[in-house]
Amino acid sequence: MNNYLAATQALLFVAGDDGLTLEEISYVVGIDKTAVRQLLEELMEQLKDETSGLELILTAQRYKFVTKASLKPYLEKYAVSPFSSQLSSAALETLAIIAYKQPITRLEVESIRGVQCSGAIQKLLLRDLIEEAGRMDSPGRPKLYRTTTYFMDYFGLETLDQLPDVESLLELNQEESKQLFKNNEDLFAELEQMHQDEETIS
Predict the structure, then answer these.
(1) Among candidates 160, 188, 75, which has minimal Cα distance to 126?
(2) Structure confidence by residue, pLDDT tens digits, 135-158
């Protein structure tokens, strides 16, 4: 049972803000929904401990991890601290994909990047570089993300047309765009330079 609990925790972490339903967890872990519900109740109890910074919530029939409301001041302080001021290469790549393919879901971004990107998306949301843009009309109704007006100001852009090869990238399928991002070093160099220029000005 401990292995099932660990697997459930890992799945919820990877699912990020989209969360998972009982049915989805049951299918992946390989146990019935009653057993999954018991695991989730156990996990909820464990996270109530004051030493945990997370809690497990149920919203719209989906379970997901969130930070405890009492810790909000620390998260806000981190968001504006020098430690959080520089975007990592992972965050820049995630931001570039969202800019090109918006509106786009987290899973679609991960399909292109080939790695989990919940952390990068959360950081971009905290920095107000991206925002939620509704939900996709598909099973699970995953959240859609798009860039913000602040994104345009942050990178000194007047329109998205100033991003390189936007139109051609939008016409590519998932596999083709994944390969293009893998090889397009100039794109990330340009975004990195924009970021450094912004840091110098500030």
Answers:
(1) 75
(2) 888 877 888 999 998 888 777 778
